[in-house]
């Protein structure tokens, strides 16, 4: 980016601010994605508890209710394969130890949630959950995907605004800034990402700019000026669609699992997945606090 000497009608000072804004926005979206990956990984880890319910019952039947929810052993190792018997043995032992720690942590969290569930007085565990609260639970389980869909949408629109503005006459930009209600806004346009960086996916862009370009020529304007910043736009559109798809897939998967397992009451949910119960309980508590 430092090699860019001119962009649209930007002055030297404006170009510096332009590049600084782009760098800052890129760092923010990368940080948001890293944070989302951590939370989504934890959410998917908790889902395993429901998917391995049969294994839970077998373990509990053998060792008792407070045993870990997942078995450990050589057949379950997913460590990196190393050359030689000693390397493979060390990899297997490292994998077993990592699983043991993860198993112990989830076991402790499960016991804590179950104890707190029986101590709390906010809801009766025998009460039916109801469809509305099941919807609330499912939406909470996929909230990181929802957050990132919104985050990428905002990022893409802001970036396109930043990239297109310098090619709009300065006087028109000033008028929009001073009299926003008097200037007709851009109605939006269909942006198609490149095959190389965005898998050819599309996005309905709504940049915050005046209606200056003929509709659906905005991307052509950027490509004619060989904007080097479109790579990040294309990649973000790809990530946007990935989160959209994963959210839809998980919503169907989680709702189907709850229905198939015959979850009727809060106690049923607690048995199926204590972590899901805790998510719903906290959501209900937060709603009460918001109403007060």
Describe this entry's structure for a reader:
The protein is an all-alpha fold. It has a domain of 203 residues. Helix content is 67%, strand content 3%. It has a two-stranded antiparallel sheet with strand order 1-2. Helix 1 runs antiparallel to helix 5, helix 4 runs antiparallel to helix 9 and helix 5 packs antiparallel against helix 9. The longest helix has 40 residues. The radius of gyration is 26 Å and the shape is elongated. About 10% of the residues have low confidence.
Mean pLDDT: 83
By helix and strand content, what is the structural category?
Answer: mainly alpha
Order of strands, main sheet, comes to: 1-2
| DSSP summary: helix tally | 11
Q: What is the oligomeric state here?
A: single chain
Report low-confidence residues grouped into runs of 5 or more. Answer: 54-83
N-to-C order of helices and strands: HHHHHHEHEHHHH
Separation of termini? 50 Å
Strand content: under 5%
Helix content: 55-70%
Biggest sheet features: 2 strands, antiparallel
The shape, in one word, is elongated
Number of DSSP E strands? 2
């Amino acid at each position: 980016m430092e090699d860019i000497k001119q962009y649209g009608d930007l002055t030297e000072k404006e170009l510096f601010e332009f590049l600084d804004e782009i760098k800052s926005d890129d760092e923010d979206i990368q940080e948001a994605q890293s944070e989302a990956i951590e939370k989504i990984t934890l959410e998917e880890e908790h889902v395993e508890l429901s998917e391995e319910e049969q294994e839970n019952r077998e373990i509990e039947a053998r060792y008792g209710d407070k045993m870990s929810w997942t078995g450990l052993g050589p057949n379950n190792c997913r460590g990196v394969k190393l050359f030689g018997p000693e390397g493979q043995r060390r990899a297997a032992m490292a994998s077993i130890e990592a699983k043991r720690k993860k198993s112990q942590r989830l076991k402790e969290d499960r016991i804590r949630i179950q104890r707190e569930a029986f101590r709390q007085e906010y809801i009766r565990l025998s009460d039916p959950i109801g469809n509305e609260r099941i919807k609330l639970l499912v939406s909470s389980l996929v909230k990181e995907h929802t957050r990132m869909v919104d985050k990428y949408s905002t990022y893409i629109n802001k970036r396109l605004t930043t990239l297109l503005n310098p090619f709009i006459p300065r006087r028109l930009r000033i008028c929009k800034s001073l009299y926003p209600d008097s200037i007709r806004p851009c109605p939006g346009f269909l942006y198609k990402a490149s095959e190389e960086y965005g898998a050819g996916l599309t996005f309905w862009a709504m940049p915050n700019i005046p209606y200056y370009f003929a509709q659906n020529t905005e991307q052509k304007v950027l490509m004619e000026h060989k904007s080097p910043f479109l790579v990040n736009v294309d990649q973000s559109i790809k990530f946007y669609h990935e989160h959209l798809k994963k959210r839809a897939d998980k919503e169907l998967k989680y709702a189907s699992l709850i229905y198939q397992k015959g979850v009727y009451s809060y106690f049923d949910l607690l048995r199926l997945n204590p972590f899901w119960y805790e998510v719903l309980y906290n959501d209900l508590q937060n709603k009460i606090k918001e109403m007060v």
